[in-house]
Structure formats: structure tokens, C-alpha cells
Amino acid sequence: MRRRFVVVFIIFLIIVSISVFFDVYRLPKGKPLQPPSYQYPLGTYIDGSNMINVNAIAIVNTLMFGGLVGVGEVTLALIYGIIAGAYGGIVRSVMVRFIDALNSLPRLPLLLSIALFYGVPTGNSLKANFFLTILIVMFTGWNIYARQITELVYTSSVGKSTRRILGKVDIKLVFRSVMRQGLTLLVPSSIDGIATYTGMGVIGGVGDPNYPTLTTLLNTASHLLYDWWMFLVPAVFRGIVLVLLLVLADEIRRL
Amino acid sequence: MLGILISVIAIQQKYVEVYNFGYGNVAIPPNDWQEYYWAILVKGYPNATVFYNGKFVNLQNVCNYTLPVTSYYTYVVKGYEEPYAFLSPISMFLILTGTLIGFKGTTLFFQERILGKDLVKGYAVGGSLTRYALKRLSSSLVSLVLVFVVIIILEYLHGRNPYYALLEFLEFNAGVSSYFKVSITSLILTTLSYTTLLLGISFSLTVYLSAFLVIYGLQSPLISKIMDKWKYIGSALASWVFAMIIIYLLHFFTGLLPYGTPKGDILSYLVMPVISLFFPFIGIFVNRMLTAIPKTSFSIKGLDRKIVIYRHVLGNATVVMLSSISSAFVEMLLAEMLVEGIFQWPGFGLLLKYAVFNGDYKVVEGSMLIYSTLTVLSNFVTDLVYGVLDPRVTR
Question: What ipTM describes this predicted complex?
């Protein structure tokens, strides 16, 4: 196993563990919008919450969003891609055209249009259920990976071989042969989920007050730019989490 | 430059007054006042005044006004409009096409300087450009049809008659905004002009500088290495996050630059958004271009290293890079939409933000249509330029 992968993975695990700990263990509150001090090393939030807790909760929610979107997208992509790639011929042609058509849709405006159906516009944000948003992001993003898996299955000729030898397509066998490559898409699809939610949050203020993410914190901070700890701390955490995920994605691909 | 110049013309504003004369006990605003290109995000809503019987009433909103007595009246709607806002889509395409050709031109210029004219000439043989263009056009139209279908489904789910919705959208007329109370087309065009101006400057600056860095990066492993790491910085420090940091540094902390919706001198308001788009993207672009260049062919053929790098490797890679510039254009447009909200830059992104905040679904759908049209057409334009510059793809 590559040393770089191990180091990055350990750092990632440490950040996740610390975040989960401070998600559960609440530090004392203070006055709202206090700058960093000995008592509050990362300052306090608009409701006086300790920014350590606020950022930890946001990191956990951000990773949960990305993780759930990633799992959903890869699952859908694997199912679709295996069927399209293994059967080949007209089935593949039609299924690939469908994916291409979905790819041509403008994702962010489409997501905002859908979010307006279940979200509540407040005049300065759009309150939208966290899990419903995961679902819509998932259903509009799986197609990118389905295309890759379709081509992977089709070019690997596992589908054709099983069809020739067994007389029918052995989906289980094809699944086993591409599962490993499919799983390497998990981290990129999670990053994609986080980035898409970020886009929805920044442009449309989409967010769930019960599940604040790092984007939610940065959105709140965009109205309070003078209070630098409100945006700088989440921005640094967001940067660290994204860089770790990007490096992990690169390393997993190389493993 | 022409594209940027046209977008500067498109954002010009002038004061206008629209009149309606009538007789009755209800004063009605002029029929077509909603169709004017009101600069709402920059100058606010137009005002309304009703004159009757030697008196006048200033209204908060433009709406019907019940007069105390039946009389002759004059209804005036006044405010600032952007009369040339219709030029904004043209300027956007000029910016894209100009940047694509400019990029190819810059690399050719460097190739000529390094190798001389004769060694730069291409001898590629192509097929029919018309056939190629028609093929690309048909695939663009299929994508647009799909967007129309999705919008009609969304309109149907909102309880509208799909037939009328289709007719409206086919005319690129999304109706009247429920929040802004003016024509959605006018809202989109007036905001698009600001988006185009910012995009034109940031995009062309990024692409031209990328070309320089790519050319120097080919010979300098240090630049190549820095750019490889910059992709992580670019992704982690997204434009909108970077925007917040520079607002704090250059506005709140040092007070060097103004921030907010431009008032007066627009140039000073442009600096921070341009930096925030340029800084993360330059690394991503250069890195993407450098990865398109194979590194193993430098020592083959027994030719001079310069000829191998600048004639064969860079020559072929520039054509591949052109297609990545098109996707970069769409990516930067998206990043700009995020940045506009942070800077209160009165562009397309800020319009979308207000529309979502206030549940104005028709503006969101109209934006979706315009955004996809721009994306599809920009891909089409790139394909055409690509076909002209590298005739091999038309085969």
C-alpha cells in the first residue's frame, strides 16, 4: 500500500474522529460573535455556540452528505452501467444515449428548480430537507459515473464472454469484475456531492437548519464578513477536507 | 476585446420615463412597461407617479391606482434601463470564440518565435465542414429539446398548462417574474450583461496566462510541479471561498477596494471578483492543459528537442486543449454565479439567488433555459472553431 495513501487516510480518520467527538461533546457557550480567545480558540457563532462544536458538526454533516450521495450515485451507476455494458448492442446504444441526454441538462439550475418544490423560501435562504436534497443530488449525478462503468464493462468484454460461454449474461460475475473499479468512484462521487450541495447553498441558499454543513457556515459568514473567524475557520476546514478527499481519490485510483 | 467592449455597452444605463394617458377612475400603468430592460439589480425598481386633476401621487409599486374621482390621468413609470442589454448574448459568444482563437494564436505566435514560420505550418487533411457543422448542430438541438421537455414537465408540476408554457418558452419568453414583477427575459438580459463583462475579463485573462504558463511549463519542471499542486489549492480554495477572504483583506481590513453593487466607477468593483475567479482557475486550467501533453515523446524521432516539444507535442496538444477550454468556460460561468452572490455583483448568479430566496420558480426555469442554451451554443461554437483549426476532426 502506498505510503502517501496511508498518511492521508490516517489524517482523514483523525479529523473525522475529532469532529465526531465534538459533535457529541458540547463545549460551553459564550456571547454571540466572540473573536478567537484563550477560552474560545475558534471564536463563537451567531448564537454563542463554541465554533469548535459548530465546525465539528458541519464537517460531520458535510461528509455525511458527500458519503450518502457517493454511495447512492455509485450504486445506481453500477446497476445501470453493468446492464448497459454487459448486454451491449442496441441495449447499450439506447442506454448510453439516455445517459448522454441526462448529461446535457444544466444540473445546478435543475436542482434549484426541483428544490423549490419541497423547500421553503424564507427571503434569504431556501430551507430544504437534508435527506431529500441528498436524493435529488444523487438522482441527477449518477449518470456521469454510469457512463464510465458502461464503457468499463463493455471494453472489458466480461459481458460478451459470459454470454458466449454460458449462453446468457451472468450479472453477478460482471458485477464482481467491475466492483473494485466501481468503488474507486466512491470518493470522487462524494466530492461531487459536496461540491453540488455547495453550489446549491451558495447560489440558492439551500440548506437544512437541522443539518448545517460547512457551506451553511460559509453562507452565514457571507453576511458577516467583518467577523473573519466566521468564514476563515470553516474555509480552512473545507479546504483541508476537500484536499484530503482529492488526494485519497487520486491514491485509490493508483492502488 | 470586442466581446468585452460590447458587454460594456450592454451595461450602459439611461433614465427613461414611460407614459400612459387615460380617462377613468382607475389609473393603469403603460402596457409594455414590464418589457423594458430595467436595471433593477443595480438601480432598484422603477418608480410610478400618477397625475390627475392637477395633483400627483407617487406610488411605491407600479400597479393600478384607484383615483378618488373619474378624470383624465397620466401614469408615469420612471427609472433606469439598460437599452443595449440585448447585446449581452452576442458579447458572450464573441468572448468565447475570441478567446479560443486568441489561445490558438498565442501558441502559434510562440511556436513561430521559437521554431520559425516554416516549421509551424500544418498539413492536416479534413472532410466536409458543412456536414460536420450540421452533425454538431443536430446534437446541440437534441440537448436543447430535452431541456425544453424538462422545463415543460416542471411547469406542469407547478400547475400550468404545458401547451401554453411550451409556446412561451419556445419564444424565449418566460413571462413575468412573480417577485420582480417585470419580464423575465428583460431580467435575464440585463443581468447577463454584467455576467458577461466579468466573465469576459476573467476568462480571457485566465486562458491567455494559461497559454504562457503552459509554454514555459513545458521546459521548466518547477512551473509544471507548482501547477500540479495548484489544482489542489484551486479546488480547496474555491472561487467563492477566496472571494470572502479577499473581501475581508482588501475591503474590510485595508479599505483599498469597494465592495457591493457597483455605484459609479465600475472598474474598482471589478477587481476583486476578477481576482477571485482568476486565482483558483489559473492553476486548474494550466494543470489540465499540461496533463493533455504526453511527456514520453520528448526524446524520440532523433529531432531537436525544441522541434519535438513545440512542433509535435504542443501543436497537437493545443487542439485537444481547445475542447477543454469550452468546458472550462462553462465551469467558470458556474463559478461566477457563485461569486456574484458574495460580491453582490448584479449578474445572472445574483438574479438566481434572489429568485430562489423568494420562490420565483419561473425566473429559475428561465435561467435554466438560458444557461443550457448558452452551454449548448458555446459547445457548438467550440466544435466549429475546433473543426476549422484542426480539419482532421471533420473527417
Answer: 0.79
